[in-house]
Design brief:
mainly beta; five-stranded antiparallel sheet; elongated
Length: 738
Amino acid sequence: MQVVAEAVGVFWERQRNKVQRSCFQAFQSRVFCGDFGLFRFANLHKKVSNRAVVTLQPSWTQIFSGETFTVRCEIQRGGNTKWTYEWTPDELNRPTTDNEYRIIRATVSHSGDYSCKGRRDSYSSTKWSDVIKLTVSSQRPKAQLRADRRDFPAGGSVTLSCSVNPSSGWKYFWYRGEKTSEPLNTQDAVFISDGQISVSQGGLYWCRGGRGDPVYYTEDSDPVSIDKIIPNRAVVTLQPNWSEIYSDETITLRCEIKDGGDTEWEYEWKTTSSYKPLKDSEYRIRYAYSALSGDYRCKGRMKSAQQSSTDWSDSVKLTVSDKPQSVLTVSPSWLSPGASVTLSCRVKDPSAGWRFFWFKAVPKLSGNSYDQELLPGSSNGTEQDSYIVHGQTHTAGYKCRAGRGDPVYYTYYSEPKFVWSGDFHSSASLTVSPDRVQHFTSDSVSLSCEGNSTEWRVRRFTEDDYPSYSSYCSYWGTMTGSTCSINSYWQSDAVYWCESGSGEFSNAVNITIQNEHIILVSPVRPVTEGDPVSLSCKFRTEKLVSDAFFYRNDKLIQNDSRRELNISAVLKSDEGFYKCQHSGEESAQSWMSVKVSRPESSSVPVPLIVGLVCGIVLILLLLLLYRYRPSKDSCSIRPIQSESTNRGSAENYSSPVHVSAGDAPLYETIKGFENTQSVADESQDFTYSLIELKNIEKKKKRHEPEEVCVYSEVNTGTAGKSPPAAADEVKPGTALGL
């Protein structure tokens, strides 16, 4: 059976021994239930068309612990009907007559989903409202304060912005100075918008947000310091003034206030490095390291007016690099007679206060290294980055390093650099077997060291930039005693030399390895001027080649059938590049050096000899001056003797004549020897005669005689010839011609 009424119901029916009970609502609140036609009645509520809505006052879904809010259930189109209310969660259902639930101090437990419905009477109610989700945060929010800049010039302003996240319903309160101060008003700031103001006074600013009734406040923001810029200017300086410094160097950064006068300042620093200096005027870095690299700026703040400060200084970039190594170059590489050696030392930043220290490299056989000895005049370093070595005649090694600052900070020593000489000397010498410059790749080449030592090592220098450790014989050959045998696999064109345990360098030799079929056989050491020398041409398969052409500096100098180029007495002009040619095959060219022969030098130092000679000459001059000084009553010229090329010639001598009266001075001539045999072996003497003239006036007048010195003529004659004519009269005060 099925019953249909005002509302669709459910029914019971039994089918196939199964009973299903159904009920339906009809006639407002009456419910009919039936079972095989039997009905009974039960109470059932009727749903009304009014709609329930949950609202929040204030309408913030995010509530903070301690805030006050109200949950309200509103019945739309409820009219004057008296409603009762039912809530979820259940704890809101007492009393049922209230349509709102007020929370005075919210806690996290108030978080949840809120829903309600209204009941008009016992049998009719609204549907449940939509759910409102409410979240209560346990922590009080904190306001955030931002400034478009932290300082401003006179007449300028700064814009401040305050915010709270989430930002629903907040009003903002602004403060300057102490936390207990009153909020700013329109006389203190320009209120641009809610949450933004403009200020034109320096100071410490902060803000907070508030909402609700009573007002719920956020936590205070972090303070922001706003400075009023004064005209003084801050400058960062470096002492010493090196923008690039090196690990472990000492440097000071200083903040200077221009025209600061007697004002007391506090200082603030900004840097992009990992370390921020303290609030002092200077920051001293005793041992620099890479993390201190960066840009540094500073400003000064008046102690008497904390919100009055300078503008930020220009930034100074500081770079801290690894400790540098000096780089040394020498010129020339090969010594020539009388030439000096110029050493040049360089650091990465050559203009930054470096002084240069110069050293002689001393071989240290243990560890394949070098000690160093200071060169003269460089104990305190030199401002110049170059140093000249005079008088170097043998192979030598040099080092340098640079230093600066106080205390002195030194670079690493440079790698040793060498100047080579082919001169052979007994204290340390190198010989090559076979004794020639050019060698075939198949040749066995050995280098032998001799001299005043029992310990030796052999080094070589190649054009390739190999590490220094690979330049020793132990790397490319086999060292047996004082002899190094070059491994054929490691043969190379190079300069070779020996170094002794006593610190000596040998002569250097230039050896080239040829992969061709022909080589030039030439001396490996310089040849002495005047010595004979022979050059020849050699094939890989033959001992020597006949009918070879020889060239010097690419000019043909011999093209006959002779086997060798023989120079009986070599000259300096024979120096140059030589090569040979045979049957279309041409050797590489090699340099033949010719040294000028010198006499054996005296063991006495040259300066001492020069000093003795000068002293003796000075003493002789003083003695001569003393002996021939003028007498009181006469003038004289001392005899001067010279060797005559015409021995046996006769001379005329003029002797002084004293004139007693009269105005006419006289002189007499004295003839020399005419016997040439008696004077043949004697030196010819020349004598200047002196005439002393005295003018005496009348006897009645007494005056001191006036003395006049007159030189007489010197006449020379030759044996067998007539004497010269008599001289003319000599007037007083007239010097006779010589």
